[in-house]
């Protein structure tokens, strides 16, 4: 039986949902919004709601409310 020694590769860990909201384009903002809508198992439900709220604000600012609401 093989065993793994050492840390897991970075792609094995979920992305930090609380990383800064630094999208510069509408496409980046929509990707982050999609991620926020999926939620993350590493933070609480209340924290997931806050991340979603912030992602929605950024997406609406960069893309416009119409485009963000069409993607629901």
Terminal CA distance reads 46 Å
Count of helical segments? 3
Cα shape:
elongated
Structural class: mainly alpha
Helix % is 40-55%
The mean pLDDT is: 86
What's the count of strands?
0
Portion in strands: under 5%
Series of H and E elements? HHH
| Biggest sheet overview | none
Task: List low-pLDDT spans.
Answer: none
- Cα-based radius of gyration, to the nearest Å: 15 Å
Explain how this protein is built.
With 72 residues, this protein is mainly α. It has a domain at 21-70. Helices cover 53% and strands 0% of the residues. The protein has three helices and no strands. Helix 1 (26-38) runs antiparallel to helix 2. It is elongated, with a radius of gyration of 15 Å. The model has no long low-confidence stretch (mean pLDDT 86). Residues 1-22 are annotated as: Disordered.
Descriptive terms for the model:
72 residues, mainly alpha, 3 helices, elongated
List the helices and strands and how they pair.
Elements lengths: L25 H13 L6 H19 L1 H6 L2
Helix pairs in contact: 1-2
Please sum up the structure shown.
This protein is an all-alpha fold and 72 residues long. Helices cover 53% and strands 0% of the residues. It is elongated and about 50 Å long.
